[in-house]
User: What shape does this take?
Amino acid sequence: MTTTIDQLFNVADFVTEEEREWQLKAREFAQTKINPIIDQAFEDRRLPVELLPEVGEFGAFGMYMNGYGLRGASSVAYGLVAMEFEAADSGFRTALSVQGSLAMGAIYKFGSEEQKQQWLPAMGRGEAIGFFGLTEPQGGSDPNTMLTSARRDGDQWVLNGKKRWIGLATIAQVGVIWAKDEEGVVRGFVVPTETEGFKATAIENKLSMRASLQTEIELTDVRLPADAILPGAKGLSAPFKCLNEARYGIAWGVMGAARSCLEAAVERSQTREVFGAPIGSKQIIQAQLADMFVEYEKGMLLALHLGRLKDAGNLTYGQISVGKLNNVREAIKIAGQCRSILGGDGITSDFPVMRHMANLESVRTYEGTDEVHQLVIGRELTGIAAF
Assistant: This one.
């Protein structure tokens, strides 16, 4: 009798009944809704946008926020949902993050009560899709080089600039655009996508995250009312607080991708025979599976620890960087080793592993590269910024 990954390390032993219910709900959605179509969506370079209202229907968008029709679930519950979505595909979990952690998070943390009332209930239901416009073509990991500008013209703001690698913008109804005002201070603006001068174009030539939607945005004399500004956001610390919400979700999510790869490798080790016996009977394969599982289990425990710290209000930027850096790095290693165990068939769509490998390279880059998080951790250890 074999033991499944969930049985060997059962996260249900460490979470509440409500958190487990969220996880199982997300797992059922991922397995019945996302998995049957994700390989074709990846091939077609298409985000399954038809599923987004269903995600809203069961309450996953902005699920850890309170009020405005949102569920007020724990951060651990959100992490478990992110993990189950990413076990299906990193691109779909990214949509959850862009909508729920970044776009909704910015309005929830820094918006006026009118902005919250206008957008959060509809976004929570998946009836309005949002984006988060921070990254620029020349900026990458250094958003302080921001060129997008916001100037006052009477009782209006006028925005000009470009953004790149912005999730969901071509299908969104609203977004949060970050721009420098005339004093050089970074401010956030709520921008309906129907506003004249706003243009979003999908980035098509991706070899990773193909079942997701990233875009370029051009802002040409986009005029907004004075109350479009996020009153609580002033300086780069505001978008960074939103990014940390997304980075937290990544620490959980990539463990879903790692688990999916591990499950494929374990199953293959039991069924593929070479030299007259299943490859799982070979010591070297068992050693590889054991080492990968240990890293998966450590990553899960780290994500859980971060979740408990977050729910207690004690999670720091440095701790989030530890989670993002370690778990993405280990998930990539696990995916690569599992691909090797699957042999040549591992590069085909018969298995999800190569898709996860490609996707995880994008996850490694966005929300802070490995190098950025190493420098964050180094600053925490030494007290010296080396950026």
Q: What stands out?
A: The chain has three domains: 5-124, 130-228, 237-382.
